[in-house]
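Hello,

Following up on my earlier ticket. Below are the two sequence lines again, exactly as submitted.
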Amino acid sequence: MQLPLHIDPASRISLRQQLADEMRRMIVDGLLAPGSEVPSTRTLSLQLSVARNTVVRAYEKLIGEGYLEARSAAATFVCRDLPDRCTEVAHVATVVDRSPDRALRAPVDLSDMQLGLFSRPAQRLSHDFRIGRPDASLFPKAAWRRLVIECLGASQHALTDYGDPAGLWPLRVAIAGHLRHASGIRTRPEEVIVVAGSQEGLNLVGRLLNISDTTVAIEDPCYQGAAFAMKSLGARMCPVPVDDEGFDVSALCDRRAMLAYVTPSHQFPLGSTMSVGRRDQLLEWANRTDAYILEDDYDSDFRYRSSPLLALKALDRHDRVIYLGTFSKSIGPGLRLGYVVVPAHLAETARSLKALMNNGHPWLEQAVVSEFIGSGAFHNHLVRIRKQYLLRRDRLMHELEGLLGPLCFEGVDGGMHLTCHLPGDLPPAHDLQQQLKRVGVGIYSLTEAPVTRHARFAGDDHVALFGYPCLPESDICEAIGRLGRILAGRSRSRTATQVHDSRGARV
Amino acid sequence: MQLPLHIDPASRISLRQQLADEMRRMIVDGLLAPGSEVPSTRTLSLQLSVARNTVVRAYEKLIGEGYLEARSAAATFVCRDLPDRCTEVAHVATVVDRSPDRALRAPVDLSDMQLGLFSRPAQRLSHDFRIGRPDASLFPKAAWRRLVIECLGASQHALTDYGDPAGLWPLRVAIAGHLRHASGIRTRPEEVIVVAGSQEGLNLVGRLLNISDTTVAIEDPCYQGAAFAMKSLGARMCPVPVDDEGFDVSALCDRRAMLAYVTPSHQFPLGSTMSVGRRDQLLEWANRTDAYILEDDYDSDFRYRSSPLLALKALDRHDRVIYLGTFSKSIGPGLRLGYVVVPAHLAETARSLKALMNNGHPWLEQAVVSEFIGSGAFHNHLVRIRKQYLLRRDRLMHELEGLLGPLCFEGVDGGMHLTCHLPGDLPPAHDLQQQLKRVGVGIYSLTEAPVTRHARFAGDDHVALFGYPCLPESDICEAIGRLGRILAGRSRSRTATQVHDSRGARV
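Thanks for your patience. The regenerated structure is below:
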């Protein structure tokens, strides 16, 4: 086998490093399949005309990193269980630090914004309650393929010309229609700006309101992607505590801010729904202090009770609310498709800004999604996956209570994850997270999730987050079974410790 | 016919306005085809339960704007020749101005950056020498369709998960390979960041280098998208004149800047290629003053002579150059796909920043383009369209010289447009542009192109820009023929005027 490796002898990067980097990449991207044999060091050294020892040391490095395994002196294989990319991110950072060019003028400093952005698990977990991911197996593959082919057939100039920077018109019409039915928001398509996921929406709003050197009120705890976006645009953060009614507006009083960022349908990460009273208070605060509200409705397509509260945007009578939606949860993040709904007086500036930022979203995704919505297939897809997600949520709650007794849950009426307040006699969520990881189960504590926190609150170390859409019911049972075995082992060893202690006391 | 119109009686926008907006949109987006009859005012007033006079006035408005035409008292039709969307943009702006919410805190002010962003022609021209658009008829439709279907079939989790924010790895490898062959740039794929077209690349670089409150040296005249992006990020512009050797580095001397933005292969808009001496000087300046260079190689895939100069990025020995490339010219802007190549020490920060900005590009476009390059189809496509574009360039130059005699051209060795310095006895380019527009021909003067200018230079009003890729040779002949007839008419009327003048003098 000839590997298509690209090694540059003139580079400042050592040959060993280059070789390890290239092979790691081929493994990560599946060009070298897990379990497959790689060429012998001798073969590769001949192919690349590099010293055999260089290849040996590159292989050793990859063995140490968990990408390769040596089964005998002569045969090396790609590991079946691969570490994830974040290992390699750390690795690239090391290379950078060694670079002699650090004396160059420093770019923007994002060093305190690294962790959450790359918060992928260090290894893939077989039973992962990941937050905010739809189930790949429920993706509407056949319908999608058909729509893609149809749209391509009718594309004409769409691929070779610039579209409207604010988005494809039929998609903006379809989104306005969807919002009218789903969230009671009445908007004109002109006020809908198509963006590359809600992350871009956050940037668009931050730049639109010129938040540099202004104050932005955020939830505490807050979705990290939002806090980091605002911070990177130069805003000062004003954290406002969240309770079971959501964002505690009274903590704001008459404090002035350019913007308040909130997740009223399903607070991220805690899951609470903002009460009607708080909604009114927040709108009143914005109007009184001349502020805007950014309503991030990231997973509002998943409501499991019949009457959702009206969105802040639907209640807004003073053009104070900017609404952020996404198809990352309802269809998939691989589309990078979301939307911002702005008040009419901001629509034209938002469109110009989107043109300045990247001149609009790729055409095909927009065309397909507008057909997907327009044909009713989106509605049917939502009904179908909602039903599955609800079954999984119920199974998860049932299994957890079966194991631990009655529990305090939050965020169960909607969304794609729930919050479980673990009983106080259990280990902290972070410890459980580490122990479960070793047996292939992923749960999330507030310290290891894409969450920005300022103040602590009582019991916050016992908050565990479970995203349930990606695990079939049988996997949920198995995962909670593993949790049970860990807790049983712990209580056995605790009993043993107590015996030992009492024995010690007897001495 | 029941039109699916959405009218909101509770809106602050008048019913007439809403109705006109909705119908205009249906026309612009092809839901109402050019030439088709629209419902009578009576039918529509019954359908919508609005006063007939409201419908009459909405129709009158659209007739005035050129979207509808009344052929008789009872029958109204969609115009066959539609005005383009920019009319409607102006219209939205008017609505905004009337809004009572102007008292709200003002967002970012982009009012001086409007013109160029929406510089679409007011009407579609039959013979348009548009700048920087590939020919839709040469798009590789069949290959594209096949690759899209292949990629979708192998997608697995790609649509329902987040990808690497810096881009799909195989695409980054493919881009690094393409650059090695096409521009002599040796880069590791880790240093390639996939972005949504070069416009997003400009924003990424501006934010990466934290250019707010710093000086950015730009070409004068400069590509407007670049100047506006830097300006909107808070940088001060330092315009540097361009001559036939490109960016005049000597004008910079020891002036300090964070960044110099240049288009060395094919200066936008004038077309000159930066000389080798200037390239060395610029690199030396950057190293001496601790600045970065942003090399925008927007149309470098089109070289019509055998030996292109090495890119600044390929000559850079001090990690000073950031390189910007795009697939908008070589494949099509509807993909919104470009790339930034950063020095190794900026790679990890650039990746974090892209994650902050929008968490990466949609998957499908990336997968298809990486296959397109990897399979050799991109290379073949470039060979095929280069051949056509070269024929069109030659035809254009031949026809222009046939009409006007020997001419001074710039920017003919590469790219997708050329600059023609019109003879001094011709009207200024801007006047010709206006006259030609009336007969369906689009040429571009420096005042009506996406160009930012600071100083004037001698003869700049006689600079005409012609983008030739979209017009077949026969259309080029026809267009230049129309130019000929305008000039002939002008010289006839000038002769007549002279006769009149001389008669006047005789009196």
